Every structure is written in structure tokens, then in C-alpha cells.
Amino acid sequence: MDRVLAEEQARREHVVVYLSGAHAYGFPSPDSDLDLKAIHVASTADLLGLEPPTMTFDRAEVIDGVEIDYTSNELAHALTGILAGNGNFIERVLGRMVPLASPLLDELRPIVRRSLSRRAHKHYRGFAQNQVRELAKQPTAKKLLYVLRTTLTGIHLLETGELEPDLSRVMDAYGIADAAALIEQKRAGERVALDVTMRDAWTPRVDALLRRLDEARETSPLPESPPNEEEIRAWLVGVRRSRLL
């Protein structure tokens, strides 16, 4: 991972590189990928030029037997996603698994916290529903854990206003402490099949969590939409101006 970080940092200015996936969600396996999700700042001169710069960069390779997937999105795209409630970008800024960051991240975090809104429900609900469909096609401990992680991250964010992507940190509080057995099962490998009895036992509990996610949207202390869009716009303009010369 260090080599990839050094090489990509030499190519662009990162605001943050976030280690996402199972490592951030509290259930990594020895064979888990390293899923690096980044936000970078494009050169202001490039943005003002005739040809727009590349806004998204992707890289995937296996190093020492570990698959590393890297994706970086330009700052404006990430901020637009954050205002829309996109949890992928919110987690990059507010998540704790950060192997690389610039001072801009310290500026951005409180701004993003002030922007949190009920719009996040759409992201987490849609993501969870997609994962439920994937679970039905191929029942594994990993796929069930992803469903639980997504629903609980969304519920916790909407009910408390705090982001917590790590399932192991919130599962006790939401009545699914026994998900620890799933975590242990997944540690045996990414593709370990889920026992049919266990799958059937979890189905109504997943349904209940999805209902709670919907209810959390209606009762959330978060505003309907971000109250500080102008603050975010002004901050971005300041970043652009500081990199013009």
C-alpha cells in the first residue's frame, strides 16, 4: 500500500486517501482487498485551460498477493456528492481509516459535519437494497455483513448525526451483537458460504433494520438538506484561488 500511496501522491495533490471496504467496516479477512478511496485537488490552471483535466483516476493491481484498488475523485465532484448525501464521499472525509491526508482535510471535516442531512438516507437505503439482492444471489457471510454495515451506518447517521462505518462499534447498541459470529466466519475467507439456517434467521432481522432506516429518516434530527451549501462553495473557491499561481 505504501508504494501505491507514494506513487499516486507524486501524480496529484490528495486531500485524503481513505482505506474503505472491510478494513473500515470492522471485518477484514487476511485476503481482503485494500480499497483506497481518495479525493484530490486539480490544478486551478488546468481547470481554466482549454481542455478539462481528468477528474477521476483508477488503479488496480496485485502487490505481494494483495489486491489494491485505488480510485480518486476531484474535490468539486466529491463536494457535490457530499451535498447530495453520498455516503461514499462523506465516509472519505469523516472516516477514521486515513493513511494519507493534507491539512485541507482538517479544514473540510467540520464543514462536512455541518452539511450532514437526511439526504444520506437515499444513499444508504439504495446501497443496502442492492446488497440484499446480491445476498440472495450468493449467500456469504461477507455479503450479509455488508448489508448490516450499510443499514447500521445509515441508521446511526440519521439518528445521531454521527458517522460510524465500523459495524463492530455499533452492532451492540442496535441489538445485533451476535453479528460477531458472522465476523469470525468471514475471517476464514472472503467467499465462505453462509449457512442456510443462519441466513434464514437473519432475514427478518435485516427487514427490521431496513424499516428502522426508513423510520430514522422521518425522525432524524438532521435537516432535510444541507444548510451550508454557500459555505462549501466559498471554501472550494478559496482552495482554487490559493492554487492559481
Question: Would you kindly provide a written description of the structure presented here, covering whatever features stand out?
Answer:
This protein is an alpha+beta fold and 245 residues long. The protein folds into 2 domains: 2-116 and 228-242, Beta Polymerase, domain 2, CATH 3.30.460; 120-219, no CATH class. Helices cover 56% and strands 14% of the residues. It contains 12 helices and 5 strands. It has helices at residues 2-11, 22-25, 44-48, 75-83, 87-94, 103-115, 120-137, 141-160, 167-170, 179-186, 196-219, 229-242, and strands at residues 13-20, 34-41, 56-63, 66-74, 100-101. A 5-stranded mixed β-sheet has the order 3-4-2-1-5, sandwiched between helices. Helix 4 crosses helix 5 (87-94), helix 7 (120-137) packs antiparallel against helix 8 (141-160) and helix 8 packs across helix 10. The radius of gyration is 19 Å and the shape is globular. The mean pLDDT is 95.
Question: How do you describe this structure in short?
Answer:
By secondary structure, the protein is an alpha+beta fold.
Q: Descriptors for this entry?
A:
2 domains, 14% strand, alpha+beta, 245 residues, Beta Polymerase, domain 2
Domain count = 2
Beta content:
5-15%
Q: Give the number of DSSP strands.
A: 5
Q: Tell me, what is the CATH class of the largest domain?
A: Alpha Beta
The amount of helix comes to 55-70%
Sheet/helix structural class: alpha+beta
**CATH level-four homologous superfamily name of the largest domain:** Beta Polymerase, domain 2
Residue stretches low in confidence (pLDDT < 50, at least 5 long) are: none
Question: What's the end-to-end separation, in Å?
Answer: 32 Å
Average pLDDT rating: 95
Outline: globular
Taking all Cα atoms into account, the compactness measure Rg is 19 Å
**Lateral arrangement of strands in the main beta sheet:** 3-4-2-1-5
